[in-house]
Write a structure and sequence with these properties.
It is a single chain. 36% of the residues lie in helices and 34% in strands. With 199 residues, the chain is α+β, with helices and mostly antiparallel strands. β7 and β8 (184-193) form a beta hairpin. The protein starts with 6 loop residues before the first helix and ends with a helix.
């Protein structure tokens, strides 16, 4: 819906630390004709809750009318924060984490994966995950892992190979990320080098 809003009302709800930024952006729009595209925080007048807002605006100088869109992006900002936290957690753990597409091509690996296998991230992205198994290992086993991962998940031991050709055992746990319609969006594998355990 379209509402006529008084700028002084917006200032009332703006958190104090954003008032200068908002005012300068408004001045630049009206007086200098610059674009208005900012993020700031307000306090909800009813609940008192702090909300994140994204605004874009245009100014019609001839009619002296300001057109603006205010979008509540609080949930989006929270989701971004959670994704960053999750990404940092995945990067910092000791287990090798890989994410592949539904065709089993690698789209992400964490630092532990790179250190363990000896490949750079650039060498791994786009590579078929099955190519990390030695040539003499039965591919039927890997096909079974892939099929079970797509349909729910798989756990067990497999033999993989590092860039220098070293073969080593890993304990692998896999699962799939499903879309709302039940189709796999991506496949996740968490592998632990169990060479020392085997010894």
């Amino acid at each position: 819906s379209t509402n006529i809003v008084n700028l002084s009302d917006i200032h009332k709800y703006l958190l104090e630390e954003y008032r200068t930024v908002f005012g300068c952006a408004m001045w630049d729009l009206i007086e200098e004709g610059k674009s208005f595209d900012i993020e700031y925080k307000i306090r909800n007048a009813v609940t008192g809750q702090i909300r994140d807002i994204h605004s874009i605006a245009e100014y019609d100088k001839d009619k002296n009318i300001l057109f603006g869109v205010f979008t509540d992006i609080t949930e989006l900002k929270q989701a971004e924060k959670e994704v960053k936290l999750l990404a940092q957690a995945i990067e910092s753990i000791n287990e090798c984490v890989s994410i592949t597409d539904e065709k089993n091509n690698i789209i992400f690996v964490n630092n532990a994966f790179v250190e363990t296998y000896g490949f750079s991230k650039e060498e791994l992205i786009g590579k078929d995950a099955a190519s990390l198994q030695p040539a003499d290992v039965q591919k039927e086993n890997y096909n079974e892992v892939l099929t079970e991962t797509i349909t729910g998940g798989w756990k067990g031991e497999i033999i993989n190979q590092k860039k220098d050709g070293t073969k080593f055992p890993v304990y692998l746990s896999t699962s799939s990320i499903q879309s709302g319609t039940g189709n796999p969006l991506a496949l996740i594998g968490v592998a632990t080098d169990i060479t020392e355990t085997k010894r």
